[in-house]
Inverse folding.
């Protein structure tokens, strides 16, 4: 990470920086696993059971497989858009598993695992990608922008970072009304440049609501690298001036992410809010509309590959004797079958009619909307 | 019945809701011990405490944004923006988060927030203290806009706004805060939005107005009756979104003429929406083009803005006469 005095930006692509996860101690990054899955980092192994670690691993493998399929569905024209998550599987799994189901999660764009970890179906997830009538958001949001009230998951605003104060405000409300829920928001490194980041940190520091703010620092805000985003030494440090506790954690280490989030969650009355910077890397495209070859050095992904979160957790499990190739093959075959079933089901679902999009503007509709609806429906019909 | 100023009526409305609903909180700059720069919330923090009447950082966007989050959780935050000239930093949070969340979240969440925006000119406040922001908020969806301009309307409509399940923008009539005093029936807690009021019945021409100009317009109508024998019908729109098309159309069908008065600048002003909607439903009844008397598309001058920028009585009178004299 460059600093203010180290301003050498000459445009992209340029020689990649070393992987910060390789210098976790020097950079103040909490880490359980080394690059080969050995639990010898600066943070103690949370010693999760075999079942718990397998749940982490299987979910990371599953969302990676979903990402692969979603990308292909977009490229083949079956769905309009895709937001890749490749390389960022650990954050969504490690963090979500540290929360209680009643806790509210405000998403960024890539956290598909929250949906599945909280018991929603793969079929309904693909239904959202297809914008089907029966998914909770009724085809209104782009693929991957999932949410559902029954699992306390709030879909992201597309203006990234705009929802940071919503998480803080909801947490503040719960504190004022005596609610027992805790609140967490995922947001990206680019979002930390927005005014809402400042507002959210400022209000959180003053009122100390039960909120955790997870900055998923994946190195790139679309095409803009970190040193064009901020001159701060890192994102966690921004919390200091707001009176917000902060921690940097290896964003490709699900065990460290779990431990750090669990600590922030369980001790929230003592700690107040925590800003968690998860240092990770986006191995894929920003979205299906992006082309990283334009701005990212080809070597950068290669440098990050040894730090692949799925690989590291698999090595950890193999070291423990909890995993082998037979299990891996069975898991991949199972996911392939389940995903295919979900795709087939989603393809058969109805898409919403135009009339449904006039619902929910207000709790009760008004003559203005109804008159526009009536006219448009008659015109659409006349066209057929 | 209690006699109150507009400001006292707003204060009484907030006090009542704070008293009866623990989910109601007031948020804003200096709303606590000072009671806001206009003293609208005076005494409320002493009575209800610092966690109900909350002094915020100087961050309009942040205030609106945190209120959106509080409302998602189920609170009923009442946000005071110090002057509506400062509200533009909140447009994204109010219009593209608060006002859209019900729809984008599939109808599963509500955002029952109220935004109090001290608005309109007449206090020699210059550009940012004399603002009418309604058009920015009317162009979109998911937010109601009201403009009460009597103590009774201020009382009943603010309570209605606080209890509404959706975001409501309240354009408060700054120049009337302390200058207009009238009886308030505190048993009338609510008033249905979307209902205009025929303030003065007349048969020759329909004049549509909202906000503080309602009162000047009635004075002009009275003088026109006396001087010219012209019988003006004055309608206070009171709610802009959704506006009461039925009352306007019924009136213009009787009078055949309509003039719309507002303080916001002309281009894309709310008068354009009223004129288009009314002519579409009553074209055959119109004897003259629908006209507007409003601010020009220039900023509001501190020294002379109140004299001509806001339609004064001369401009309102001239506008009505122009339409009366127009021959189709």
């Amino acid at each position: 990470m460059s600093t203010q005095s180290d301003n050498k930006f000459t445009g992209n692509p340029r020689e990649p920086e070393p992987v910060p996860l390789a210098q976790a101690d020097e950079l103040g990054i909490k880490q359980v696993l080394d690059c080969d899955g050995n639990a010898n980092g600066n943070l103690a192994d949370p010693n999760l059971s075999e079942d718990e670690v397998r749940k982490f691993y299987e979910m990371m493998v599953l969302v990676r497989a979903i990402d692969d399929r979603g990308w292909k569905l977009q490229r083949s024209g079956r769905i309009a858009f895709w937001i890749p998550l490749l390389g960022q599987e650990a954050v969504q799994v490690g963090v979500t598993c540290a929360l209680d189901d009643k806790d509210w999660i405000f998403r960024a764009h890539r956290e598909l695992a929250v949906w599945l970890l909280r018991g929603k179906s793969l079929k309904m997830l693909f239904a959202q990608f297809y914008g089907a009538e029966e998914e909770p958001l009724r085809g209104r949001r782009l693929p991957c922008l999932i949410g559902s009230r029954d699992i306390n998951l709030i879909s992201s605003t597309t203006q990234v970072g705009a929802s940071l104060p919503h998480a803080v405000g909801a947490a503040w409300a719960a504190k004022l009304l005596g609610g027992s829920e805790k609140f967490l928001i995922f947001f990206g490194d680019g979002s930390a440049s927005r005014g809402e980041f400042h507002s959210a940190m400022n209000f959180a520091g003053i009122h100390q609501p039960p909120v955790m703010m997870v900055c998923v620092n994946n190195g790139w805000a679309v095409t803009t690298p970190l040193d064009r985003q901020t001159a701060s030494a890192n994102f966690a440090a921004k919390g200091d001036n707001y009176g917000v506790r902060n921690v940097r954690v290896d964003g490709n280490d699900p065990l460290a992410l779990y431990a750090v989030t669990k600590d922030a969650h369980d001790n929230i009355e003592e700690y107040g809010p925590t800003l968690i910077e998860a240092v990770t890397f986006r191995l894929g495209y920003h979205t299906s509309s992006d082309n990283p070859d334009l701005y990212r050095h080809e070597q950068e992904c290669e440098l990050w590959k040894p730090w692949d979160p799925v690989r590291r957790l698999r090595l950890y499990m193999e070291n423990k004797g909890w995993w082998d190739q037979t299990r891996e093959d069975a898991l991949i075959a199972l996911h392939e079958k389940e995903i295919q079933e979900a795709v087939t089901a989603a393809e058969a679902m109805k898409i919403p009619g135009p009339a449904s999009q006039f619902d929910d503007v207000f709790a009760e509709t008004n003559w203005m909307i109804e008159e526009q609806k009536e006219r448009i429906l008659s015109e659409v019909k006349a066209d057929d | 019945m209690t006699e109150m100023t507009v400001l006292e009526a707003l204060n009484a409305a907030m006090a009542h809701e704070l008293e009866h609903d623990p989910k109601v909180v007031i948020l804003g700059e200096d709303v606590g011990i000072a009671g806001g720069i206009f003293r609208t919330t005076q005494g409320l923090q002493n009575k209800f405490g610092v966690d109900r009447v909350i002094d915020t950082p100087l961050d309009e966007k942040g205030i609106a944004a945190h209120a959106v989050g509080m409302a998602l959780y189920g609170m009923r935050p009442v946000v005071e923006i110090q002057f509506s000239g400062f509200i533009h930093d909140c447009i994204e949070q109010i219009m593209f988060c608060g006002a859209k969340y019900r729809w984008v979240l599939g109808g599963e969440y509500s955002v029952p927030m109220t935004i109090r925006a001290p608005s309109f000119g007449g206090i020699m406040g210059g550009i940012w203290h004399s603002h009418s922001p309604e058009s920015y908020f009317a162009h979109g969806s998911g937010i109601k806009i009201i403009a009460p301009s009597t103590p009774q309307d201020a009382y009943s409509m603010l309570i209605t706004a606080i209890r509404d399940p959706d975001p409501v923008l309240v354009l408060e009539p700054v120049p009337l805060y302390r200058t207009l005093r009238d009886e308030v029936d505190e048993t009338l807690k609510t008033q249905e939005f979307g209902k205009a009021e025929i303030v003065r019945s007349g048969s020759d021409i329909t004049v549509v107005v909202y906000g503080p100009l309602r009162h000047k317009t009635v004075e002009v109508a009275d003088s026109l009756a006396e001087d010219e024998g012209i019988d003006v019908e004055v309608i206070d729109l009171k709610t802009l979104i959704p506006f009461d098309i039925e009352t306007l159309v019924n009136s213009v069908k009787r009078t055949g003429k309509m003039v719309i008065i507002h303080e916001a600048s002309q281009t894309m002003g709310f008068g354009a929406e009223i004129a288009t909607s009314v002519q579409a439903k009553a074209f055959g009844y119109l004897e003259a083009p629908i006209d507007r008397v409003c601010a020009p598309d220039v900023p509001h001058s501190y020294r002379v803005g109140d004299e001509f920028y806001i339609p004064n009585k001369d401009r309102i009178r001239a506008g009505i006469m122009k339409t009366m004299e127009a021959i189709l």
User: Anything to note?
Assistant: Chain A touches chain B at residues 136-138, 140-141, 147-149, 154-155, 157, 159, 162-174, 176-177, 179, 195-196, 198-200, 202-203, 206, 359-363, 366-369 (CB under 8 Å). The CA atoms of residues 367 and 373 of chain A lie 10 Å apart.
